[in-house]
Specification:
This protein has one domain: 3-Layer(aba) Sandwich (Rossmann fold), CATH 3.40.50.300. It is about 45% helix and about 15% strand. The chain has helices at about 15-25, 35-45, 55-60, 90-95, 100, 105-120, 130-135, 150-160, 165-180, 205-215, and strands spanning about 5-10, 30-35, 65-70, 80, 85, 125-130, 140-145, 195, 235-240. A six-stranded mixed sheet has the order 2-6-1-7-8-9, sandwiched between helices.
Length: about 240
């Protein structure tokens, strides 16, 4: 497992973070939340008063902040210039702006390079939106988590006290559109990835499915080709 890379992609609310951390914990691997890195960049831009509508301004300054990501699945951390921003990057102002910042090619180039450094020789579960397609296309295990729009919105509502399902659903739809249509590294299901619909599954069930896939694919070095799954598992599909 020391050289294994599990690439976990998918839209917000699909369960990437909880599943990725659970899988990393079960396998004794490191964990990296690449979305937190883009949020950290966004937090810094907002703090510095950079006009996020001006992509050239964002590009010109994206090399300034020092972003450091911890890789412990039991306690992932994120710091910007030595400041702990784990809570701050989850605030609504960052959430509403992160897709705009993440669409800037220079931002992606800088953070993808850093993500590849952290991945290194492997032994890690990495979650994001372009891990299997851009950051680490050679990963032997590539998962694309998805869920119905309503299920994803319900999960976000449960995490934010006093919020409404319809508000989260509208915000997610907007973010999905930006993420999937940006010119640089759009959200997409990578070739060779397995799509796992988490709508009707518990967290434990999803983690179990991923661990099963790791056992099948990881042990074979990521060999391509169809995989047979037990009957009734219509929530799993593979892109060849």
């Amino acid at each position: 497992m020391t050289g294994l890379v599990v690439a976990m992609d998918g839209p917000s609310g699909s369960g990437k973070s909880s599943v990725s951390r659970g899988v990393a914990r079960a396998l004794g691997l490191r964990y990296l939340d690449t979305g937190a890195m883009y949020r950290a960049m966004t937090w810094w831009m907002l703090r510095e008063g950079v006009d996020l509508a001006d992509s050239a301004a964002v590009a010109a300054r994206c090399g300034e902040p020092g972003i450091v990501s911890g890789t412990d699945p039991d306690g992932p951390t994120i710091h910007v210039d030595g400041v702990d921003v784990a809570a701050a990057i989850r605030e609504t102002d960052v959430t509403g702006s992160v897709s705009v910042v993440a669409a800037v090619p220079e931002v992606r180039a800088r953070l993808v390079a850093r993500q590849r450094e952290i991945i290194g020789a492997g032994g890690i579960v990495v979650e994001g939106r372009d891990i299997g397609s851009v950051v680490c296309p050679e990963a032997p295990v590539k998962i694309y988590l998805t869920a119905s729009a309503e299920a994803r919105a319900r999960r976000r509502t449960a995490e934010v006290a006093g919020s409404k399902v319809e508000d989260h659903q509208a915000a997610m739809a907007k973010r999905d559109t930006i993420d999937s249509t940006r010119k640089t590294d759009p959200l997409s299901m990578a070739a060779g990835a397995v799509e796992l619909d988490t709508t009707a599954l518990s967290l434990e069930e999803v983690i179990g499915e991923v661990l099963s896939l790791v056992k099948q694919r990881g042990s074979s070095g990521g060999a391509s080709g169809a995989h047979e799954f037990p009957s009734g598992r219509d929530h799993i599909h593979e892109r060849t």
